[in-house]
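Entry for iron/sulfur cluster complex. Fields follow.
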Amino acid sequence: MELADIEAALAPQYSKFHARRIFDSVYAQRSFDASVMPESLRFAFQPGELKESARYESSDGTVRYLMQLADGKTVETVFMTEGSRDTICISSQVGCPVDCKFCLTALMGLERNLTAGEIVGQVLHVMHRHDLAPKNRTMNIVMMGQGEPLMNLDNVLKATRILVDQRGIGMGERRICLSTSGLIPKIEELGRAKIRPRLAISLNASSEEQRMEIMPITQKWHLAELLETCRRFPLKPKEHIFFEYVMLGDFNDSEADAERVVKLLAGMTCKMNLIPLNPGPGIPFTTPSDERVDRFQKIIMQSIPCYVRKPRGRDIYAACGQLNRMNQESSLVQVMA
Ligand code: SF4
């Protein structure tokens, strides 16, 4: 709930002061202790805290959470820390309907959208667990976990407004980013929102045909049209569009691919992240060699800032959807919490 939602939900005998107190207790104090609320409100307002059903710690400091929702379904949330920067990767749906061929979440299909509360709840849980405060350290939130955020845009935008409210969690708007497979009308709708995450496009291919092979959604929303939409996207000052590129060994990682990508993105205000595949069971692709990743990056860097995202948490199955799937299929994953 945003502050205005709480005000509207309170019975008339309660003032804005009470609404503010509830908002402050949940989002600023991050206290799920109902005793901080006025006694007469305790039963009316029960914070819907998510339950941590499992936690896995990687040797590289990545911590992966399996969060249980009120209906028993689970989603994945990942905490990554590096130097003075913390990143929380959150889910926006249970499963995903998009069917990218390199992604384990796709194998689950879509179960349902998350509510705004369930999206924010993942952040609150990780902040609480790791004692994080956006004012003390750089904190980023990326909506790159399970799900296609633009298929749940209303709740994603509501969650974003809650996250950036300086009376509560106090995130910087620029520090929140969502990644989409490329739903063109929804990208346009996102661009019209006053408060919104930054836009990242999950590109992953250097041509229409190649993208169709691994991202069937390209049959509906063509690559050329998608890139045109990106060119028209109303960027805020100092904003870039991020292009994410999952590198699949001997599929989209050649020098010719890199040269084609440079042409596709020519003239755009953008940056690129290369993500060597985090392999998983049932995924018919391999991780490219470091040399191929390096050569690819060098070619892109001649025209666009380009970073290689280090694979995180391989020892805890940290690729998108891996944890949920492993949990469903077997007890291969060892709980380390
Ligand atoms: S990569 Fe993202 S959009 Fe594609 S299936 Fe996986 S979760 Fe969905």
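NOTE: The longest helix spans residues 116-130.
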